[in-house]
Each structure stands twice: as C-alpha cells, then as structure tokens.
Specification:
38% of the residues lie in helices and 17% in strands. The chain contains 11 helices and 10 strands. The two termini are 24 Å apart.
Length: 293
C-alpha cells in the first residue's frame, strides 16, 4: 500500500537484482529506442514532458523506463518516489553496480523509474576524470539495449551542458527537445543544436540528432505563443510536433502530489495534450506503435 506523507504519495519499491518481472514479456520489440529529453535551459518542461509522456505511453501499452539524470530528482518526486535515497545511477555510472539494481516499478503498470538524488552531482566530477567520460551512460545502458525489455527509455536530463547531459546525448538514439513558447525559444534551440554537433564530432555518438521538438507552456490568450510556435515550425519544419502542451494550473500542481497530470486531472486539457503527444510520438516510431496488452 502507498504511504502518504503530506500531499505526496510515496510508493514503496524493493531493490531488484534482476529486471522486473512486470517489464518482461514474451513479445520483444523490434528495436528499443533511447530518447534524451534535453534542453540546456531550465524551466521549459523537460521533466514534465518526461513524466507525462512516459505515463501516456505506458497507458497505451508501451513498456517505459524513465531515467532521472537530474541531481535535483524532480522526475523522481513527480512520481512520488523521492524516498528512494541512495538508489540513483551514481554507482552504476562509476562501475560499482548494475543499472538493473536501480530499476524500480512505479504504481503505474508498465512504467519504471531509475531515481535520482544529490549523489549524481558528485558523479559529474568523478566521471570527468575518466578517459571514457563521454560514454559512461552508454555503457551503463548497454545491458538494457541488448535485453530489449523496454520499448522506450526516456532520459530526463539536467538543465545544463555538463557531463550528465553530454552522456545522455552520447547514449541516445534521438533527442526530444521541449521548448517554452517564449521570445528566446530559438536561441535555446541553436545552443542545443551546437551541443549535438559537438557530440557527433567527438565520435561518442555519430548518429544522434534532434528527432522532435515539443512546444510547451502555450498560452492561447497571447499572440506571442502563437508567433513563437510559427517561427519554430518555420525553421525546423517536420521536427516540430503538431501537439502543443498548454500552460495550466493543474499541470503545475500535479508534481506536488507526486502524480502525473494524467492521474491528477485525467480529463483536463494538459492530460489530453500529453495523450495526443504520445499518440503522435508512436506514429513517428511506428515500428513500436502496436499497443501491447
């Protein structure tokens, strides 16, 4: 049973030394995808998108693993699992444990989490001293790629251009970039494009690219939001998702209760938007788009 503490719902989850039985299936996907949800700018909806897109995909039958790479642990607390102290990727990234030991079930079927805590901030410093500092996460995730247990792994990146974010870009098949509907949106996009080019040029991941751009915090009452969306679409064309995520009070409130907006306000505009985003996401990845039971 969940344990309640204030407005949050905390989910007890024992450490696992093998992949969760709930995640295993006789059916294996043709190819698991690792998607880094990244933007070096803070406050653009990265964690909100990682959690709610992950929940919406799981709702549609996909087996999802969210990896919280932000030492602040916002994705972890957004799922009501902030009690999992000491269970982050710190040791796996440094070679002291397997990522399998850090995978925990959430209360939602087919949705799993690798939590984060402040130890990850120390990992940034220690990884930087290693010869393979750009590919530590790629190596850590390799066991999951070969096992093909999950359909999608979503990497919730920190809002910085540090070691953890560059590791995520080096490990990912593609990048999903949330962009707030504000004046400096394109400026932020230019920076992330440059970082992607640097990762490719380094040889750490020559195939990585921005596979999608999601416009977030859209305010239909202002002309600015519509203008920013139009400008981003003019520059990046089909990479921009048709689905736009609105700015709503319910979406902002949901993390304080340790819930996705799909649980907190299942019939609200934000929940509908993330379900639409999940549908569009699966159409773009149609090799995995069949809904699993």
């Amino acid at each position: 049973m969940p344990v309640r503490l204030g407005p949050r719902v905390l989910v007890s989850a024992p450490r696992r030394n093998e992949l969760p039985a709930e995640a295993r299936s006789v059916h294996r996907p043709a190819h698991m995808k690792i998607v880094a949800i990244a933007n070096q700018k803070g406050g653009v909806g990265k964690t909100t998108t990682a959690v709610n897109l992950g929940c919406a995909l799981a709702e549609r039958g996909q087996r999802i693993l969210i990896v919280d790479l932000d030492p602040q642990g916002n994705a972890t607390s957004s799922l009501g699992m902030q009690e999992l102290e000491g269970e982050s990727l710190y040791e796996p990234l440094l070679g002291g444990a397997s990522i399998i030991e850090r995978i925990f079930p959430t209360r939602l079927e087919r949705l799993f989490l690798v939590p984060a805590d402040l130890d990850l901030a120390g990992a940034e410093v220690e990884i930087a001293r290693m010869n393979d500092h750009l590919t530590r996460l790629k190596q850590t995730l390799s066991i999951l790629r070969s096992d093909q247990t999950f359909d999608f792994i979503l990497l919730d990146c920190p809002p910085s251009l540090g070691i953890l974010m560059t590791n995520a870009l080096a490990a990912a098949d593609e990048i999903l970039t949330p962009i707030q509907c504000e004046y400096f949106a394109l400026e932020g996009l230019v920076k992330i494009v440059r970082v992607v080019e640097q990762v490719r040029d380094s040889g750490a991941n020559e195939q990585v690219e921005i596979g999608g751009i999601v416009m977030t915090m859209f305010d239909g009452r202002t002309k600015l939001s519509a203008q920013v969306v139009a400008e981003v679409r003019a520059h990046f064309g089909g990479r921009v998702y048709a689905t736009v995520i609105p700015r709503t009070v319910r979406l902002s409130e949901a993390p304080s209760f340790g819930k996705s907006v799909l649980e907190y306000d299942p019939k609200g505009t934000a929940a509908r938007a993330y379900r639409a985003l999940a549908e569009e996401f699966l159409k773009r990845h149609d090799s995995l788009a069949s809904v699993r039971g």
